[in-house]
Amino acid sequence: MWDGTLSAADFQYASKEFMKLWNHEECNMNQWSWEERPESSAQGYLILEGVSLPEIETPLMHESLSMETDDKEELFSDDATLTDLTSQPSRCTYHVIYNESYNVPTIYFRGYHSDGSPINWLDIHMSLPSHLAQQMDQNRWTFLTQEEHPYLHRPWFMLHPCGTSSIMSLMSTERLKQKSRGYATPPEPRKRGEGEDKQAVPSRSSDLEFDTKLEFIPSIREAPTNQVGNYRDQYLLTWLSFVGPAVRLPVPLDLFKSLN
Amino acid sequence: MGNEDEDGKTGEEDFAVRAFEARKHVWMGAIPLLVHLHESEVTSLPAPTPLLILAPRNGYLPLLADSIKPHFQSTLPPGSDTIWFDYEGLPLKWHIPTGVLFDLLCAEPERPWNLTVHFRAYPFDLLSPCEGEDSVKWNFVNALKEASYVMFGSTKSVMNLSQTEQSDLWKSVVKGDLESYDHIFSRSKPGMNLNSNAPWNTGRSASHRPSSADSELENKRTRGEGVRPGRLPMRFYIRSVKEKFDDFCDSSPVDSWDQLVYMTRPIDVPKDKETVLTLRDALMKVVPHLFSSKSPIVNNESDESRRSPESSAESDPAKLGEVSDQDTGNEKLEPEVGDIVVVAPLPCGADETGDSHEALEEESRMNAQDPCGNLYEFGDEDKLLTTTGGLWEGLKVQSAKQFEGVVRIQGIELNLDIPLDWVARNLCGPEMFIHLCICTWVSR
Predict the structure, then answer these.
(1) CA distance linking residue A120 with residue B245, whole number of Å
(2) Could you say which of B127, B141, B156 has the minimum Cβ distance to residue A155?
(3) Does ipTM surpass 0.85 in this model?
């Protein structure tokens, strides 16, 4: 059984393939690029810059702005300005970096509001769907934290990688099951325990850091006996499908269809 | 170091006692700090005197807040406080153990270490937020989980600790209490007990694949075997200085973290029991560019009497050939048992034997040559034949390249041929990582 991890060389290969796929299929979206880093065993990492995310109106933001109003009335006296700021998107940058210890990719991100202030932990918390926000609360220090970027050495938000290999391994098991039944069609989300047609909903265990509900399991081609070899091509896309929602990175579903 | 006594059991116990003492020395290691309050935060006259305080090597600077703050409390401006430190203007990363920061940033150890403490104007763009002891604690726990995964392919040994155990473990780090730290780990599964008296070459290797790790390690633990990690958790910190100074005081202080290269790179532990992994091996793997290509013949340092004139050529390897010609005349340099010799592969046809069949045989055997013209073949492990047919057993043929730098772990400058498993067991940090501070004169 494959353990869900990836070698540095495989990560480099998978990144290049992923980049080709995304950049080709999604010409209207931001493009991924590869940053060379010889000190990484994967020789580099992936970058996605300038992603615009709709601003979330948070009570905190209004609060901070009203505080500023006291000091700088002439700038903020216009109500219309207040509305404009909140409707302007914030901009985020994502880095996908190979984690040397866990042998899986890890996602780092950093963002700024339209007024230039950095996105903080609370902003992220407010912007996530409730089940993920709950994860952030319950696992304050082990789910999404501000850590030092391994190459830029500045604080970036990072999604903890400890659960990644378990989830990837679980997904490959599910795929094998599907493969034995022929190509899978997008299944309806089901509750756990309902017969053989189980969704690959990872069970809560001490190793898994967050719950995800998969709405679409990509169907797989005829795979050679070496699972990992085949899986390498799809690794990043699959990984991003469950990591994306936690970091508000939109992953276009049509990318999965194009894998057929 | 090792079970060489005839009475094997006593030897093992002896080893365990000595190993524990070594670790205890490291854990009790502390850096004397002279802490100055930043001038922008001094609101009283006269300015407060700097505070002299001992900081545990295997500890973290923010944990000293309770000892430092009261001293400066009266002079701080009103507002809320978040402690941070700088050395010569460089904000210090609080998640790096104090001892490592000292070894890295003070090329020439400064005693006491002059640091500036701040309680305001936290540099959020450079330092990740530190919300008191909790931040430091969780960073420690996450690092420990990572170390556990690197060694045994599973984070279970940390995750399975109860709340009380985790809390006690943290307290033992804060207080520098090695005994209670070890005690907690002795009960963990799989065993993270570094003080185990079973050296690694007796235990079978832990798989660093998560799926099979747990049951395998559980069995090992119940059998009382020493568990051999699959990989070693290491962090490399590399600082470049301009020239190879004899005295590091002349090197300029680091004024930005961008001047340093630091990374986490686990090192694979060889699966067979015979291969001894050394510090040199780890460095060759991760920072091969810090080794020079010119290398002398390195004599066995333990035996001074065998030092021959050419050893002075160590510092000037280019002249090796000349020295031996001048000083030894026709005599060729002959390495002795235990020496590490540099050999270079011979191009085909370099041999000068007449008969073609013999020549071929010779060629296939003679496939390396040292700088002084001695020829070697690679036959059985560690056994080599010279052209004269003499047998030098135990002659290690290694690419003994010169390391262009100094390596410090826990403040100790180590010989590169030290076994890494000893380093891991005795010199690791509180989170079980080995922190290597490298000062090199190779330009980036």
Answers:
(1) 44
(2) B127
(3) no
